[in-house]
């Protein structure tokens, strides 16, 4: 892509010529919105200390996420008028480190016929000359879902505080000719350049229960036409928030979204509207035929691979060219009742940004919290070579258990004593529900009890069980919320996944980020991620406790455990 000033000004002139620049800017019309970001009620035991959330009201999907002039930009779906979904605008915050965030006035809000009934999800793309552009879904007066374009008004402003919309909006829309479902046509991806120098973008859709990644192409990012065939499709229901990007076959670096070749695989992620899960496949992209083909053996939908096996949805990645990494962001919705959400004055949190790359096996992705989050660590405590006998629990004291980062690795012996994995035990979430933390086994359950109360009336258990499978040992990772709160109005679903790790040659590792009402857990170095929302009534703030436990009959050794209190991030 050209970086010269000549190329940039030519491209910018081209956009003006196509009618993109509109006189109005969002902050001139909606200046009062920022004033609505006032503090929530004083007693807030479930507000997070270092996860992203505005002071009050509803948030959901992270939209366009990008880095511009060294500044990270997070755009997200926001209701400025309440703690339930509705009145959606594109709120906007910036950061120098993906940890501490400064809010700005909403970047995009309903102001044209093409988005007058809502500004829904979309993505950011960096155009030639380093110029950002946003494609987003608008809801028109007929309540049709259509695709729109906005660009920054002032490219010299690293905070991109003003955005203008194309007067040619909508650029893509359902018609009688294309037969696109007007109520299921949303969430454009980050665009990429093909070998013919045309831009491509994918939009989620469906026909009956056939999920579609509808492909559009453009020479100038303004005039788009639909490809004859979708990029991909599968019978998994509506595809929301699609994401399509390359990952190198070797190493942990990220690459630009337009890159293709024998040295990369491609990832297609879709958010399944039917089940609210973010699922992905890994495969190959033919950028001449514009067809994506999952690798042989890939499973589409809920039975296949997921970014996160807990509360995690509507995620988005972006390429951080400053640090050569791909970053994943996602929405953690509530597990509390709507009445409780309204009472506390807010709903929704974003997960800690994660670096994401292809595992050495080539069969799945690996995720890990960005290293910047470690700057919040304080009050470090550690254990090493600690034997956990069967039935034992040890308290990890010296850290603020309600706001902590814990890393632990376990060493297992006596594999022959593992329980036999029955052939019918193929659903890991169901297996975790049947064999929760209170159900004693042989090799497991062992792991961490977080946000636990004194006396254990409340606790969230993140743990492993080891089974003897066919010619291998099988590791089950669970997050058991069944006793997380005495408030029975909460969703206390137990989550689980099988972890692909050879425990005969590798220690079993677990990391949990604990933040008042969130537990983000990473097993096997990030091969399995499970996020839980919990709302204890006793284990809050200073009353929360942290334990390591082993309720199996066989002893387990803690090879090493490191835990830190986490300082509070600056999120105004």
Automatic annotation (TrEMBL):
<dbReference type="GO" id="GO:0005975">
    <property type="term" value="P:carbohydrate metabolic process"/>
</dbReference>
<dbReference type="InterPro" id="IPR013148">
    <property type="entry name" value="Glyco_hydro_32_N"/>
</dbReference>
<feature type="signal peptide">
    <location>
        <begin position="1"/>
        <end position="25"/>
    </location>
</feature>
<comment type="similarity">
    <text>Belongs to the glycosyl hydrolase 32 family.</text>
</comment>
<dbReference type="Pfam" id="PF00251">
    <property type="entry name" value="Glyco_hydro_32N"/>
</dbReference>
<dbReference type="Pfam" id="PF08244">
    <property type="entry name" value="Glyco_hydro_32C"/>
</dbReference>
<dbReference type="GO" id="GO:0004553">
    <property type="term" value="F:hydrolase activity, hydrolyzing O-glycosyl compounds"/>
</dbReference>
<dbReference type="InterPro" id="IPR001362">
    <property type="entry name" value="Glyco_hydro_32"/>
</dbReference>
<keyword id="KW-0732">Signal</keyword>
<dbReference type="InterPro" id="IPR023296">
    <property type="entry name" value="Glyco_hydro_beta-prop_sf"/>
</dbReference>
<feature type="domain" description="Glycosyl hydrolase family 32 N-terminal">
    <location>
        <begin position="51"/>
        <end position="369"/>
    </location>
</feature>
<keyword id="KW-0326">Glycosidase</keyword>
<dbReference type="InterPro" id="IPR013189">
    <property type="entry name" value="Glyco_hydro_32_C"/>
</dbReference>
<dbReference type="InterPro" id="IPR050551">
    <property type="entry name" value="Fructan_Metab_Enzymes"/>
</dbReference>
<keyword id="KW-0378">Hydrolase</keyword>
<protein>
    <submittedName>
        <fullName>Uncharacterized protein</fullName>
    </submittedName>
</protein>
<dbReference type="InterPro" id="IPR013320">
    <property type="entry name" value="ConA-like_dom_sf"/>
</dbReference>
<feature type="domain" description="Glycosyl hydrolase family 32 C-terminal">
    <location>
        <begin position="372"/>
        <end position="565"/>
    </location>
</feature>
<dbReference type="InterPro" id="IPR018053">
    <property type="entry name" value="Glyco_hydro_32_AS"/>
</dbReference>
């Amino acid at each position: 892509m050209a970086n010269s000033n000549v190329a940039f000004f030519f491209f910018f002139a081209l956009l003006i010529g196509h009618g993109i620049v509109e006189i109005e800017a969002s902050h001139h019309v909606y200046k009062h919105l920022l004033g609505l970001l006032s503090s929530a009620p004083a007693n807030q035991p479930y507000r997070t200390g270092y996860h992203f959330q505005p002071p009050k009201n509803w948030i959901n999907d992270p939209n366009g996420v990008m880095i511009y002039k060294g500044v990270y930009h997070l755009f997200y779906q926001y209701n400025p008028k309440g703690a339930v979904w509705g009145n959606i605008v594109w709120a906007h915050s910036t950061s120098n480190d993906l940890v501490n965030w400064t809010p700005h006035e909403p970047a995009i809000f309903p102001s044209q016929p093409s988005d007058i009934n809502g500004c829904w999800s979309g993505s950011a793309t960096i155009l030639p000359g380093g110029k950002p552009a946003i494609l987003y879904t608008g809801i028109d007066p007929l309540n049709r879902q259509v695709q729109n374009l906005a660009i920054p008004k002032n490219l010299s402003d690293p905070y991109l505080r003003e955005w203008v919309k194309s007067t040619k909006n909508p650029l893509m829309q359902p018609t009688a000719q294309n037969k696109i479902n007007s109520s299921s046509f949303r969430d454009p991806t980050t665009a990429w350049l093909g070998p013919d120098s045309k831009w491509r973008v994918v939009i989620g859709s469906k026909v009956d229960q056939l999920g579609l990644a509808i492909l559009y192409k453009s020479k100038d990012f303004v005039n788009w036409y639909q490809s004859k065939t979708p990029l991909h499709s599968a019978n998994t229901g509506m595809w929301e928030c699609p994401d399509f990007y390359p990952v190198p076959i070797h190493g942990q670096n990220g690459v630009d979204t337009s890159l293709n070749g024998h040295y990369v695989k491609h990832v297609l992620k879709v958010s399944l509207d039917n089940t609210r899960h973010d699922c992905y496949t890994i495969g190959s992209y033919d950028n001449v035929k514009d067809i994506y083909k999952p690798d042989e053996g890939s499973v589409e939908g809920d039975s296949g691979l997921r970014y996160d096996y807990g509360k995690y949805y509507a995620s988005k990645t972006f390429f951080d060219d400053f640090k050569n990494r791909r970053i994943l962001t996602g929405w953690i919705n509530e597990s509390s009742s709507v009445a409780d959400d309204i009472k506390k004055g807010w709903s929704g949190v974003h997960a800690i940004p994660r670096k994401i790359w292809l595992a050495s096996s080539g069969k799945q992705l690996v995720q890990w919290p960005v290293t910047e989050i470690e700057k919040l660590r304080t009050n470090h405590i550690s254990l090493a070579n600690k034997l956990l006998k069967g039935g034992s629990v040890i308290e990890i004291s010296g850290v603020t258990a309600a706001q902590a980062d814990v890393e632990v690795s376990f060493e297992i012996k006596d594999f022959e004593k593992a329980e036999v994995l029955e052939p019918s035990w193929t659903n890991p979430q169901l297996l975790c529900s049947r064999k929760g933390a209170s159900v004693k086994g042989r090799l497991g359950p062992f792991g961490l009890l977080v946000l636990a109360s004194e006396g254990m009336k409340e606790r969230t258990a993140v743990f492993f069980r080891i089974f003897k499978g066919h010619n291998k040992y099988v590791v089950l990772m669970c997050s058991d919320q069944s006793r997380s709160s005495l408030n029975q109005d909460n969703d206390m679903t137990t989550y689980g996944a099988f972890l692909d790790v050879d425990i005969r040659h590798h220690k079993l590792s677990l990391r949990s980020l604990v933040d008042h009402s969130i537990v983000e857990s990473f097993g096997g170095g990030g091969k399995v991620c499970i996020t839980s929302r919990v709302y204890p009534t006793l284990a809050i703030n200073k009353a929360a406790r942290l334990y390591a436990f082993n309720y199996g009959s066989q002893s387990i050794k803690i090879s090493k455990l490191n835990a830190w209190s986490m300082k509070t991030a600056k999120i105004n």
